[in-house]
Amino acid sequence: xxxxxxxxxxxxxxxxxxxxxxxxxxxxxxxxxxxxxxxxxxxxxxxxxxxxxxxxxxxxxxxxxxxxxxxxxxxxxxxxxxxxxxxxxxxxxxxxxxxxxxxxxxxxxxxxxxxxxxxxxxxxxxxxxxxxxxxxxxxxxxxxxxxxxxxxxxxxxxxxxxxxxxxxxxxxxxxxxxxxxxxxxxxxxxxxxxxxxxxxxxxxxxxxxxxxxxxxxxxxxxxxxxxxxxxxxxxxxxxxxxxxx
Length: 245
Known about the structure:
Distance between the termini: 79 Å
Largest sheet: 6 strands, mixed
Order of helices and strands: EHHEHEHEHHEEEEEEEEEEE
Shape: globular
Structural class: alpha/beta
């Protein structure tokens, strides 16, 4: 009689949204990087210090391999958790391999030039909705329970949360985010690069707010908008805050 040996699966692929921080290098001078990055890390929250980081070399820079290697070594010496290089015309897999990094496309996270079309003239922003992808117009997720620490919620369209979002929780949406309560955790709208996405909340006490890859951590939030109803949106590369009355 032949014995049957049960084969155990060694691996399993799981779909999961992981947040990475994109560090755009606008200068490859190792001394300048050491000074500025060390200061930012000293002021950053613990989660940001440990977040996986993708290096995005500014297109204006001459990506000299020697200078790039010195920059990467500097970042590693500061404890930055480097995982990949953003692919571009000047950055390929060979360059990344030389630096011991992978490559990653930021097509959904780079700044996407807006189409040449008139801005909406109505206060309710009705014209803006027409420019969004169809999926964002029809798919909305509604959460009526508190989002607790360690939980992660992701919507392929808009996300509406009718309860508090706790510190350590993370809510993400391809479209807009509405929190009709206290926002203490992290809120990331337009995660696939939609710069027209917006964040609305009744009480702004977030660890981080992000729209299309542009983010502000708790320390950078304007004091005048803390613990108040706020509307956040992008204008160019700047994140704007407006009080909701």
